[in-house]
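To: structure desk
From: M.T.
Subject: fold request, one chain
Message: Could you run this one when you get a chance? Sequence is below, nothing fancy, just the single chain.
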Amino acid sequence: MPGVSHRDPLAPLPPDEILVRDNLRRHVAKLAGEIGERSMKRYDGLTAAADYIRDVLAAQGWRVAEQTFESEGRPVRNIEAELLGTTRPNEILVIGAHYDSLTGTTGANDNATGTAAVLELARLLNDARLDRTVRLVAFVNEEPPYYYTEAMGSRVYARRARERSENIAGMLSLETIGYYSDQPRSQHYPAGLGLFYPDAGNFIAFVGNLASRDLVRRSVRAFRQSVAFPSEGGAFPGWIVGVEWSDHWSFGREGYPAIMVTDTALFRYPHYHSREDTPDKVDYDRMARVVRGLAGVVTTLANADENS
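Reply: Done. Structure tokens follow.
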């Protein structure tokens, strides 16, 4: 990967990142605390989350649209906010996260954290002038039983994009990004990968399949140039466990370059897909640094030449 991962102790949060932290905490508390479970089994929670996301994005001044489709005979929604590019508006960068939770869980880290990051990126970028169009999208129905099916929200969205011949230059899926540990052996990996990566789960990971390796490298470079926070990246065959376990899979199926940004979920987080995945488990200070870095990644990717 380009550059070097940050290894020194983290400095105190500056005032602008304290604001990022507090906003992230507020969004996660709303989604995973006040609203709680967000699934087809608790449809009112799913609907309340979609309404909240729509309203926050609109309040930031973004153009907001809803993609509605039926799931189990009920309407569900992807929420899209768009910032039109200034010089290359037909080239699109998608930053997305699923807002549903697994049935029976409140899904604080998985994936209220990713959704909160999308909402905070809207605030951080709302005055930006970017060459490419940026879309922030909150997807429904990522969790089982919809994962890898035609009812998966990102699958519906990516197929429509292909049908419209939209030129998506890259897609970043923000998936479970709020848990970190400095303890040795707190980080685990699919077989064999632990030889090449740290054994402490204190970093954010950029993960893609082999077809998206250039996007992984460009994203890691931009992140390391934007923020002092540990980061790792890798492009692997899609059959390796976990490599395609998020909404980026849907875009890859349509031939778009797409990667996942993650704390690695079950390979680190002890409360993955459990009732213990609650807002108090999230490390908001470190998550704020990640989101600040992601703002730099989005800005760089939206303005950079494809070959840079």
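Reply (cont.): The domain at 15-303 is CATH 3.40.630.10 (Aminopeptidase). Let me know if you need anything else for the meeting.
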